C-alpha cells in the first residue's frame, strides 16, 4: 500500500504541474472565461481522481497478489497486462473508427510485448488458473476492476 501511496503522490504532483501549464496556456491563448472555468473545474476534481486511482490500483495489487506469482510477473501484470486490456476495452467504446483502430493497435502491441517468449509470462502454462493475460482469465477477477475504472471515469 505504501508503493501505491507514493505513486499516487507522484501522479498528483505531475498532474498539478500539468494544470499549472494549462492555466498558463489558457492565459497566453486568451481563452474565454468559460473555457478557463472548465479547466478550473477539472482541477477541482483532481483529489477525487487520485482517490479513484488509489482504489483502482489497490484492487489490482490485491487481485494480482492472490495469484502467488513472482514479483517480475506481478509487475508485468500491473504495468502491461492491465494497461493493455484496459486500452482494448476503451477501444471497444470509441465512436470514431480511426481512434478505435489506433487504440486496438496500441493494446495489441502492449499485450504482445507482455507475452513475448523472452518475458516472464512465457514460463507460465497457457491453461489453468495461472494467467498469461488472456481476456478469459482476466475475466475471473481483473476485468471487473477495469470495468469499474472505466465506468467511474
Textual characterization of the structure:
There is one protein chain. The chain is mainly alpha-helical and 153 residues long. It has a domain at 69-152. 75% of the residues lie in helices and 0% in strands. It contains 7 helices and no strands. The chain has helices at 2-28, 33-44, 46-65, 71-93, 97-115, 135-138, 143-152. Helix 3 packs across helix 4, helix 3 runs antiparallel to helix 7 and helix 4 (71-93) runs antiparallel to helix 5 (97-115). The longest helix has 27 residues, at 2-28. The radius of gyration is 18 Å and the shape is globular. The model is unreliable at 127-153 (pLDDT under 50).
In short:
The chain has helices spanning 2-28, 33-44, 46-65, 71-93, 97-115, 135-138, 143-152. With 153 residues, it is an all-alpha fold.
Contiguous low-pLDDT stretches (5 residues minimum) are 127-153
Radius of gyration, CA atoms, in whole angstroms: 18 Å
Structural class designation:
mainly alpha
Estimate the helix proportion, in percent: over 70%
H-E order: HHHHHHH
How many helical elements? 7
CA-based shape = globular
Mean pLDDT, to the nearest integer, reads: 79
Give the N-terminus to C-terminus distance in angstroms: 22 Å
% residues in beta strands: under 5%
- Oligomer classification: single chain
The main β sheet shows up as: none
Number of strands: 0
Amino acid at each position: 500500500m505504501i508503493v501505491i501511496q507514493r505513486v499516487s503522490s507522484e501522479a498528483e504532483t505531475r498532474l498539478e504541474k500539468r494544470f499549472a501549464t494549462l492555466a498558463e496556456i489558457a492565459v497566453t491563448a486568451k481563452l474565454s472565461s468559460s473555457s478557463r472555468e472548465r479547466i478550473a473545474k477539472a482541477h477541482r476534481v483532481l483529489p477525487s481522481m487520485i482517490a479513484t486511482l488509489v482504489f483502482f490500483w489497490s484492487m489490482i495489487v490485491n487481485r494480482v497478489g492472490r495469484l502467488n506469482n513472482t514479483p517480475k510477473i506481478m509487475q508485468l501484470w500491473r504495468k502491461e497486462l492491465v494497461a493493455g486490456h484496459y486500452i482494448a476495452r476503451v477501444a471497444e467504446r470509441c465512436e470514431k473508427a480511426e481512434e478505435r483502430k489506433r487504440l486496438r493497435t496500441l493494446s495489441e502491441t502492449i499485450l504482445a510485448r507482455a507475452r513475448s517468449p523472452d518475458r516472464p509470462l512465457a514460463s507460465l502454462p497457457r491453461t489453468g488458473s495461472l494467467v498469461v493475460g488472456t481476456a478469459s482469465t482476466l475475466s475471473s477477477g481483473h476485468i471487473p476492476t477495469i470495468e469499474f475504472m472505466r465506468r467511474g471515469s
